[in-house]
Structure prediction request, 460 residues.
Amino acid sequence: MLPLSNEDLLFRIKGGIRLEGTINKADEEGIKAGFKVAMKELLSKVNSNIFTLCNRSGPLCMWPKTHASTQPANLQDETLCKAILKYVTVEISESVRKYARKKTVKITPLKVINLQVRFELSRTDVAEKVIIQHNKMARTHFKLTLPLDVVVFANPEDTWSSLQDQFLEAVTAQLTVMDQCIQRFTKGKTVPIPQAFHFELPERTTLTTVIYPAGISEKVLEPERKVLHGELGLDNKPYLRRSMTFCFPTDENKFKYLKNVHRFIAPLNPDEFKVYLVHGSYTFHHCLQDDSNDVGWGVPYRCIQVIISWFNYQGYINIPLPTVEELQDGLTKGDEEFVNIAEIKEWPTGVQIASILKSYQISAVNYEFRTNDQPTHLISHFEEQGCPVMIFSEPKAYILLGIAVNDDPHATKHLVLDTMYTGNDEVTNVIEKAVSWKGRDFWDEMEVYGLSQPQRPEGI
Prediction:
């Protein structure tokens, strides 16, 4: 996963690139051949003097082929690429920025620099070839806009020259893979638009980009993902579904709720503990959120919201996050006993919690424990299932996000997300008051407690 503190510069190169050409024969093979020739011509343009990159919100433009820029005196071949920061706008995750303001934390937020693709056509040494052909053969002219989306990680101490070369190599590589996608998924006269998606993967400090054809479902693409899992050494949990794409700073304002808040707390000593964590992403939900007056009775529903968000982000379901009232209404329609519970604001039972989850296509296994019987099977759960777990004993309910163990069973710790939190959704407040590693004392709070353990469906 990308480290929270990162000195690297992340360049994101985006833009619609027009792919156009002619098709001599309007069957599948003829269409593929026409697109193959067009892509070859496009790659030639990219690797020429007219290919230009411009900072979307700043004045800097550059020509990677010749290493030229609009700052020739300041950006020369041997200049360190961190010098570019004077001439571009930089985006930083707002959540990480707020976290970095804490006096006890010293981190360097990842800097994202957005670049836009352009082709220069106004230079005197640039001329488009004009080819005139005359024959009676029927031809079809096509135009397709490729949504280029390339990421390049650069060490600030890299040279400007090497950075320019990286840009060209990365754009060429993505267009080549897009060409392979078109060739592979063109069926009959239907040509898919290839799209780039960026993913965080375990034990990798850069993003992994995958090209998928637009309009083809995750289920149909599962064989492709299985091949990629094998090549990348991934296990049988989902990593490469579209819903799991990396969240860039520009994307954060699209999300109403905080994601993966446990990433902000200090990690345990790896020499002392073996840690097993929730897999993938979730959003944090808690009492009083969304102006709902649900202190006390609403806690289990907030836990359910966290679980539903996890299943959404992993791509197992595609359901708008329900409100607390909608979660209640879902069962009151067919369960007379639950109607009374909802009206007087009582807690749902473990069976009813499982029923609510089932109505959202989520299967869960329920257990009941006493304080002295800690759920040690959670190690295998986080290893194999990776889902957040709900623990409840009225009037308290929490989400478990992980477990840490060593040779001393009394030293076991659990990563606890407190849905009883009633503060605002500022990351600094949340990590101080709502998420932390808990020791044995945590279980002493509850004599008897229930555990709802969701089960993820098969498939990656």
About this structure: The two ends are 18 Å apart (CA to CA). The mean pLDDT is 91.
